[in-house]
Amino acid sequence: MVFCFMHISLSFFLLEADLYKLQKRDEGERAVLLFDKVDVDHTDHLTYNELEAIFGLFDANNDSTVTQAEFLSDWTDVYKIGGPGEAQGLFQRADTNGDGVITKDDMPAIFKYFDMDGDHYVDLNEFLTQWGQLMLFPSRPVDIGTVHLG
Ligand SMILES: [Ca+2]
Ligand SMILES: [Ca+2]
Ligand SMILES: [Ca+2]
Questions:
Q1: Could you tell me the pLDDT band of residue 61, with boundaries at 50, 70 and 90?
Q2: What's the gap in Å between 9 CA and the centre of ligand 2?
Protein backbone atom coordinates (compact mmCIF):
# COMPACT_ATOMS: atom_id res chain seq x y z
CA MET A 1 0.00 0.00 0.00
CA VAL A 2 2.73 2.42 1.04
CA PHE A 3 4.85 1.32 -1.87
CA CYS A 4 1.93 1.87 -4.20
CA PHE A 5 1.41 5.39 -2.90
CA MET A 6 5.11 6.20 -3.25
CA HIS A 7 5.09 4.88 -6.77
CA ILE A 8 2.17 7.07 -7.73
CA SER A 9 3.78 10.13 -6.12
CA LEU A 10 7.04 9.44 -7.92
CA SER A 11 5.28 9.02 -11.27
CA PHE A 12 3.42 12.27 -10.67
CA PHE A 13 6.63 14.03 -9.79
CA LEU A 14 8.38 12.76 -12.92
CA LEU A 15 5.44 13.82 -15.08
CA GLU A 16 5.56 17.32 -13.60
CA ALA A 17 9.32 17.50 -14.17
CA ASP A 18 8.92 16.37 -17.78
CA LEU A 19 6.21 18.92 -18.42
CA TYR A 20 8.39 21.62 -16.93
CA LYS A 21 11.34 20.64 -19.14
CA LEU A 22 9.08 20.51 -22.17
CA GLN A 23 7.77 23.97 -21.45
CA LYS A 24 11.28 25.37 -20.98
CA ARG A 25 12.58 23.75 -24.15
CA ASP A 26 9.61 24.89 -26.20
CA GLU A 27 9.66 28.51 -25.05
CA GLY A 28 11.80 29.68 -27.97
CA GLU A 29 9.93 27.45 -30.39
CA ARG A 30 6.61 28.84 -29.20
CA ALA A 31 7.84 32.37 -29.81
CA VAL A 32 8.97 31.40 -33.33
CA LEU A 33 5.56 29.82 -34.00
CA LEU A 34 3.84 33.00 -32.86
CA PHE A 35 6.15 35.04 -35.09
CA ASP A 36 5.50 32.80 -38.11
CA LYS A 37 1.75 32.90 -37.52
CA VAL A 38 1.60 36.66 -38.03
CA ASP A 39 4.50 37.04 -40.54
CA VAL A 40 1.99 36.38 -43.28
CA ASP A 41 4.25 37.41 -46.19
CA HIS A 42 7.20 35.41 -44.75
CA THR A 43 9.69 38.28 -44.93
CA ASP A 44 11.18 37.27 -41.54
CA HIS A 45 10.35 40.64 -40.12
CA LEU A 46 7.12 42.04 -38.74
CA THR A 47 5.57 45.33 -39.75
CA TYR A 48 3.52 47.34 -37.27
CA ASN A 49 0.30 45.72 -38.53
CA GLU A 50 1.74 42.23 -38.32
CA LEU A 51 2.89 42.71 -34.71
CA GLU A 52 -0.54 44.12 -33.92
CA ALA A 53 -2.04 40.88 -35.27
CA ILE A 54 -0.41 38.95 -32.40
CA PHE A 55 -2.64 40.81 -30.01
CA GLY A 56 -5.58 40.16 -32.31
CA LEU A 57 -4.99 36.46 -31.67
CA PHE A 58 -5.95 37.05 -28.04
CA ASP A 59 -9.12 39.05 -28.83
CA ALA A 60 -11.51 36.13 -28.51
CA ASN A 61 -14.74 38.06 -29.17
CA ASN A 62 -13.24 40.39 -31.84
CA ASP A 63 -14.26 43.66 -30.19
CA SER A 64 -10.75 45.16 -30.72
CA THR A 65 -10.17 45.04 -26.98
CA VAL A 66 -8.17 42.34 -25.19
CA THR A 67 -9.38 42.01 -21.63
CA GLN A 68 -7.34 40.33 -18.92
CA ALA A 69 -9.79 37.40 -18.89
CA GLU A 70 -9.40 36.90 -22.67
CA PHE A 71 -5.62 37.13 -22.43
CA LEU A 72 -5.33 34.71 -19.51
CA SER A 73 -7.65 32.12 -20.98
CA ASP A 74 -5.96 32.19 -24.43
CA TRP A 75 -2.49 32.21 -22.88
CA THR A 76 -3.08 29.24 -20.57
CA ASP A 77 -5.80 27.21 -22.37
CA VAL A 78 -5.91 27.97 -26.10
CA TYR A 79 -2.24 28.51 -27.03
CA LYS A 80 -0.91 26.87 -23.83
CA ILE A 81 2.05 29.25 -23.70
CA GLY A 82 2.43 29.32 -19.92
CA GLY A 83 0.80 29.72 -16.52
CA PRO A 84 -1.66 32.33 -15.21
CA GLY A 85 0.88 34.23 -13.06
CA GLU A 86 3.17 34.74 -16.06
CA ALA A 87 0.19 35.74 -18.23
CA GLN A 88 -1.00 38.30 -15.72
CA GLY A 89 2.48 39.85 -15.51
CA LEU A 90 2.72 40.06 -19.30
CA PHE A 91 -0.75 41.53 -19.57
CA GLN A 92 0.22 44.32 -17.20
CA ARG A 93 3.38 44.97 -19.26
CA ALA A 94 1.41 45.03 -22.52
CA ASP A 95 -1.24 47.36 -21.12
CA THR A 96 1.19 50.25 -21.53
CA ASN A 97 -1.31 53.03 -20.68
CA GLY A 98 -2.65 51.16 -17.65
CA ASP A 99 -6.35 51.42 -18.53
CA GLY A 100 -6.92 47.72 -17.77
CA VAL A 101 -7.27 46.49 -21.39
CA ILE A 102 -4.96 46.01 -24.39
CA THR A 103 -6.12 48.03 -27.39
CA LYS A 104 -4.61 49.75 -30.44
CA ASP A 105 -3.65 52.59 -28.07
CA ASP A 106 -1.07 50.33 -26.43
CA MET A 107 0.50 49.22 -29.73
CA PRO A 108 2.91 52.14 -30.41
CA ALA A 109 4.75 51.53 -27.13
CA ILE A 110 4.70 47.74 -27.63
CA PHE A 111 6.08 48.09 -31.17
CA LYS A 112 8.77 50.47 -29.96
CA TYR A 113 9.74 47.92 -27.30
CA PHE A 114 10.26 45.16 -29.88
CA ASP A 115 11.83 47.31 -32.63
CA MET A 116 15.18 47.66 -30.88
CA ASP A 117 17.09 49.36 -33.74
CA GLY A 118 14.17 51.63 -34.71
CA ASP A 119 14.06 50.61 -38.41
CA HIS A 120 10.26 50.18 -38.23
CA TYR A 121 10.50 46.42 -38.58
CA VAL A 122 10.68 43.77 -35.87
CA ASP A 123 12.97 41.05 -37.17
CA LEU A 124 13.08 37.56 -35.69
CA ASN A 125 16.19 38.31 -33.60
CA GLU A 126 14.60 41.38 -32.06
CA PHE A 127 11.41 39.47 -31.42
CA LEU A 128 13.17 36.56 -29.70
CA THR A 129 15.46 38.83 -27.67
CA GLN A 130 12.65 41.02 -26.38
CA TRP A 131 10.27 38.08 -25.92
CA GLY A 132 12.97 36.37 -23.82
CA GLN A 133 13.33 39.52 -21.71
CA LEU A 134 9.58 39.51 -21.08
CA MET A 135 9.74 35.86 -20.02
CA LEU A 136 12.72 36.47 -17.72
CA PHE A 137 11.14 39.50 -16.10
CA PRO A 138 7.38 39.14 -16.38
CA SER A 139 6.71 42.35 -14.47
CA ARG A 140 6.57 42.67 -10.70
CA PRO A 141 5.58 39.70 -8.53
CA VAL A 142 1.87 39.08 -8.80
CA ASP A 143 -0.63 37.61 -6.37
CA ILE A 144 -2.31 34.82 -8.33
CA GLY A 145 -5.13 34.95 -5.78
CA THR A 146 -6.26 38.25 -7.30
CA VAL A 147 -6.87 36.72 -10.74
CA HIS A 148 -10.56 36.43 -11.44
CA LEU A 149 -11.55 34.66 -14.62
CA GLY A 150 -14.92 35.27 -16.22
CA1 LIG B 1 -12.15 41.18 -26.86
CA1 LIG C 1 -4.34 49.76 -22.49
CA1 LIG D 1 14.02 46.55 -36.13
A1: very high
A2: 44
Superfamily of domain 27-146: EF-hand (1.10.238.10)
Measure 62 CA to ligand 1 centroid, in angstroms.
5
| Cα angle value 87/115/29 (rounded, 5°) | 50
| Nearest ligand to the C-alpha atom of residue 129 | 3
Tell me which ligand sits closest to the C-alpha of residue 103. Answer: 2
Residue-wise pLDDT for 42-58, tens only, equals 999 999 999 999 888 89
Domain layout of the chain by residue ranges: 27-146
Q: How far is the CA of 33 from the centre of ligand 1 (A)?
A: 22
Q: What is the dihedral of CA 132, 114, 98, 149, to 10 degrees?
A: -50
